[in-house]
Write a structure and sequence with these properties.
About 35% of the residues lie in helices and about 30% in strands. The protein is α+β, with helices and mostly antiparallel strands. The longest helix is centred in the last third of the chain and has 18 residues, at about 165-185.
């Protein structure tokens, strides 16, 4: 393995998890789709960058070089950064403006740039300043609840927050669910049925497109890690 990885889950309606990596050599990794925004702090030598990643539309092989330390804050699906539109950063990264070496500007506020140990304080400050916003229509849709929301309103909310159509957003969530089932030991047939696919071939095509690996490759990868 050419990088170290650790993560911690957060009990928050805004944030899913905080992760930390350090690359020990150059390589590539598969960036699959998760339907959420990320705030990423990267450090190489004395150079620090802070960026917001929008929702992705394509699984991709992402190259990296040795010696980069990164801390990522994965927002929950339906959570976005104020003053940024999901349509403008879908499949893109927006590098944020820094104030000196220690602070970053976000939605008109200055925040001390965090690391893995201080990321929770950073998150609390973002929430207190109203920088992180929960789109309740999108979070409800993610949970399967669209009561009282017209199709037109749903499309508008999902597009503004994620840059995606409701259909594509749902496909990502379903592929994620299938991937989790496979990682937990489910057979391909069982994962396809429980995730709501019509058959195994349908799931294989969708998971390969959105997660970057076939179901068989996901299972083999889990066995290799053990």
């Amino acid at each position: 393995m050419s990088f170290t990885y650790e993560e911690k889950q957060i009990d928050s309606i805004f944030v899913d998890k905080i992760w930390h990596t350090y690359t020990t050599s150059s390589g590539t990794y598969i960036a699959n789709l998760d339907g959420n925004w990320d705030i990423i702090i990267s450090k190489k030598d004395d150079n620090i960058t802070v960026a917001v990643n929008g929702v992705g539309k394509h699984a991709a092989q992402v190259p990296y070089v040795a010696g980069i330390e990164s801390t990522g804050i994965a927002l929950k699906p339906g959570v976005y950064v104020r003053d940024l539109n999901g349509k403008d950063i879908v499949d893109r990264q927006k590098t944020l403006k820094k104030a000196g070496d220690m602070f970053v500007e976000l939605s008109g506020h200055l925040f001390k740039i965090p690391d893995f140990d201080t990321a929770e304080i950073f998150i609390e400050e973002l929430i207190a300043s109203g920088v992180l916003i929960v789109n309740k229509v999108v979070t409800s849709f993610n949970e399967g609840d669209t009561r009282g929301v017209s199709d037109r309103s749903l499309r508008r909310h999902v597009a503004q927050t994620t840059g995606l159509s409701p259909y594509f957003f749902h496909q990502i969530q379903r592929a994620q669910h299938a991937t989790l089932l496979l990682q937990q030991g489910a057979s391909i047939a069982r994962a396809a049925a429980e995730a709501g696919y019509t058959d195994q071939a349908h799931m294989t095509k969708a998971v390969k497109q959105l997660m970057g690996r076939t179901p068989a490759q996901i299972i083999a990868h889990c066995h290799h890690k053990k």
